[in-house]
Records
---
Amino acid sequence: MRVMIAGAGAVGVSVATELLENGHEVLLIDVSADAVRVGREPRAEWLLADACEITTLDDAALERCHAVIAATGDDKVNLVVSLLARTEFGVDRVVARVNDPRNEWLFNEGWGVDVAVSTPRLMSALVEEAVSVGDPVRLLRFSQGDAGLVEVTLPADAALVGARVGEVVWPRDVALVSVIRAAHVLLPEPDEVLAAGDELLLVATTAGERMLSGLFSPPRAAGPGTEPPPSNPSSPAGTAPADPRNVDEEADEDEDEENGSGPPRPRPETPPAPREEPPPR
């Protein structure tokens, strides 16, 4: 595979060395004469020119390259190189370096970028991955569909511990791609039982990643029993409160009697007044 790398700084030369070790052809391009020193990597091809110029890319025979890596320290240059490589030369694979995380939103397929590599974000993700248990950590972002590679270490008290992979209902736009257990990489077979300490690798969109946290929380404990309603403080001690149904029935009877629509309620009888005896003559 032939690869062109724009930017012969420490990052570009290091990537070139790795690719050469794996048997690939590498062309390094840089506009700085101080950076273009063949002795830094004699096995690579070198070109002193501006990678943002189409004439430079023509001289580099970019149409013969299978991949382009924009690895300069300037985000504007990396975007221009990516766009030219994709639109003018139809390069199959374009990888771009993001120097300022605030510019990361620009590095997408609209600018010809297949994979954006943000060094600050990658370093912070590696730190979070080392110390975070139970929290999703985004390791890599893909250019299409706002998807990324997410890692989660399963805590011992997670609700998913002991569950089979096939029983888990994953959120929308989330897919489990691998389970790392000790020194083994496991395929997420439906009958595979998840264990505490498993590292789960998932592909998820930003929205799907936000919904992942609830899956790895501890199971919710049963709530306390329902307490009896407080007694009516106006009721005498030891006396049960009045039945509201009886109160409603009495109110309905009073209303019917006033409207003349129901039988009159019996009135308590008044005892007759005592007869007065006439005084003796």
---
Amino acid sequence: MSVVSRIDERELAIELLHSVKKFFKFRELESLLGISTPMIWRYIHGEVKPSVDRAREIISKLLSREVLEMIKSRVLQVKEGGIVNVYPLAYSVEILTIASIDALLWASKFSPTCVMTTEVDGIPLATLIAKRFGIKMVVAKRRRELGYSNFYETTYMSYDPPELRSLYVPKDLLDEEDRALIVDDLVRSGRTTLALVEIARKAKAEIVGLYALLSVGDRWKQAIEGVVPSYRTLFEV
């Protein structure tokens, strides 16, 4: 059974409502969705499920750029000098739930067999996305993991702080049968993404796309152009 056929849009709509409610008052949701507050309350508390058509409308509106921009303005902290505080996004259960649903709906057409990420901040989102797809997660670490003897590895110059970093993935975890979806919390320069692409290339695995919680600027797009076939970010700065 394909991932698409397993998606329960009615359940996803209720999950989204649960999570988005953290950032909006009922009267705001009523205005955004065109659904009465009592009915929204009943959906959230499980008294009734929306129809499939209404569920699709709810999902479409809650994942619209308009609503995501409103959430971003209420959560994201950009400090002096353009420093972005990712923590309120990367470790918010509600934000991670919204992002994992968005990733599921966007990437299901690629039929990924694994989610690739790096330690540390990308792991929470990657875990939720892998769970929704029912696929394995491959974490590239900055040290060789005990218990494994053979690794795919690569070295790259990180953006912040600027330093040489090495990443390692046990060869037992990734091979030519895999279709990998790269997941990260923040994409700015594209360097980490390219490092993961290089590891996948060494394993002869296929990269199907990149999903990130937050992107800063457009330089990363130029970096991965022609290398990553498709990408999506939940929030943009």
---
Amino acid sequence: MKTKTNFFSLALILSLLLICFTTVSSVHGNSSERLTPLTPTDTEGVLVFQAEHTNSPLGNWEIISPGHPRFFPGASNDVMLYFTGNAPNLGPPDSPIKYTFKAPESGTYQLTIRSSRILEGARNDHCNDYFVRMEGDFEPGEFGSHDTFSKSILESDTKHYFSSVPDREWGWTVLGERRIDGENVKKRLFYNLKKDEVYTLTVSGRSKRAIMDYIVLFDTSKVSMADVRDGEVKLMLEPRADGSSSDD
């Protein structure tokens, strides 16, 4: 009788464990709880992630906000992510941080990151890039005369950089760069995404003192890079206690 009771107790425990495992798998596979919070905008076809809203360990990324000795104005919400690893000009992918999202509509999306840097005497072409990679059911995209890299490259760490941005001022990443057949090839980063599919963008540090404000993926059929760069896409930020926003 005791053996029979133990058998049923073990069966009950295994059943409960199976239910828990199935529930956890379902939550992590489909629930919006695992998605990175989006910053609302006034423009359709734009996904915006505040850099600091990742759930990943920051590693060599440091949050800078008012009161920090390196703080300077211009970041949305007055918060930025500052990379402290590697050298000012290069280094391996370091401290990967992830942003997981669901595509609102099928389309060709372009990646750009609002960025700045602190040179501290470094050359003008230093402190100006990251590594990025995309995971999920996508294909390489194109827009007009611009194509992009192969899917295998887009799925692996690819240099993504901004240039001609003065020290402690703000600009945008535009091009990715990879070494292919002995040449440095530069292309914009386009992804053909599918509606309601879940994707993960990973950003890793490359050059020291590069700074992220926020990340944008925009549908090229609805929004242009010029719209993003020139401020035509407005972030709908939470007002501060004084009634203003950090973009005022």
---
Amino acid sequence: MTGLLVGLALGLSGAIFQSMSRNPLGSPDLIGFTTGSATGALLQILVFGGGAVAVTASSAGGAVLTALAVYLVAYRRGGGVAGIRLVLIGVAAAAMLQALNSYLITRAELVEAYEAAFWLTGSLNGRDWDQAVPLAIALAVLVPAALLLSRSLGMGELGDDAAQALGVRVQRTRLLLVVAGVGLVAAATAAAGPVPVRRAGRAAARQAADPPRRGAAVPGGADRCGSAGYQ
């Protein structure tokens, strides 16, 4: 169950960011949100020594704070947030956070470094209703919100000017989509870590691209369904 929910959350989040940025590089892992989530977890494991609940909360908080920072840096007064700027700043943020994550691991004690490296691989092993229920609650809120915004998102792909002419409040819609997408990433990563599945974009979803063999089949299939269903 946790695998299905994680795959659905990651697939839907990937579809949101790729469609919003109109760029296949706009998936949450490449623009830093997943990396920020990992940074939050590593700080809790290696610096503060928190338990499982604290690690989960820090992971979600890391994704949210990273998204907030990327959004604020990408924002321009009068022009709002452009998709290409969001991607470029997100890629830079991901690189910096990845460097920070590597530094934290290299400076840690062996046992703590092993625990951190294990968390970074992402895993569904041992996940039960303690992880599935909070994730299901998050999806119950965020999925309907994302679906309500899907029509405006589709119009936004025509360009900001065309979308505004059709009555879409572009920047308000973009902000709400970022909130929904980041919430999905944070909830999924907090539940299972950065599980390595492919975020199928619009073209990949239409072509029914196979998830990578190294990813779990269940979250990979749910990820594809989540992406394709949002189109």
